[in-house]
Write a structure and sequence with these properties.
Helix content: 55-70%
Strand content: 5-15%
Order of helices and strands: HEHHEH
Structural class: mainly alpha
Strand order of the largest sheet: 1-2
Length: 120
Amino acid sequence: MSDAASNQSLFGVSGMALELRSQRMGLLTSNIANAATPGYKARDIDFGAALKARIAGASSDQATSAAIQYRVPVMPSLDGNTVDMSAEQVAFSQNAVGYSSTLSFLSDKISQITRSLKGE
């Protein structure tokens, strides 16, 4: 059994979700960092679609690539940049909360497995 397959059976959907949330965090961070870059097109990951693809057997990179979408700006800027800082900050915050709660769940599961192995 490969490491990816054993991790999937051990951590299930939570492990996949954590990985996707991490990738989404990087994309949102990139959007925020490029807020002043002329012509930069903000992107985001459709988390639900990416998670469904992962559950269906796609690799993390395949699932993420297929679920990346360009943001449609509410108010386009004159320089062609589509980053809306308030929308990016909200998406970043929501993703950070999801990441933190998923990580907490996995930490509890690992702790429970460790206690079981020790016979506690």
